[in-house]
Amino acid sequence: MGRAALRWGVRDLAKHAGITPATVTRIESGFAAHDSTLATIRSAFEAAGIEFIPENGGGAGVRFRKPSASA
User: Fold this and answer.
1) Taken in order 63, 10, 16, 40, is the CA torsion positive or negative?
2) 11, 14, 67, 70: which has the highest count of C-beta atoms within 10 A?
3) Fold category of 2-64 in CATH
4) Hey, where are the domains in the chain?
């Protein structure tokens, strides 16, 4: 969902996260990944302005972070 919100392809996410496109594809296909790899991907999304929404009865998700008041 984060890639779609940012309009990033597999290669874009791989570049921003510093991993290979094959790693992104494997993870998106449901294969296990190291926790450190998932943390790196999450950091890349957060740096691009994505905020992760926890499970709250409606399901977990992502959204764009609100701009700060100083922006």
Assistant:
1) positive
2) 14
3) 434 Repressor (Amino-terminal Domain) (1.10.260)
4) 2-64
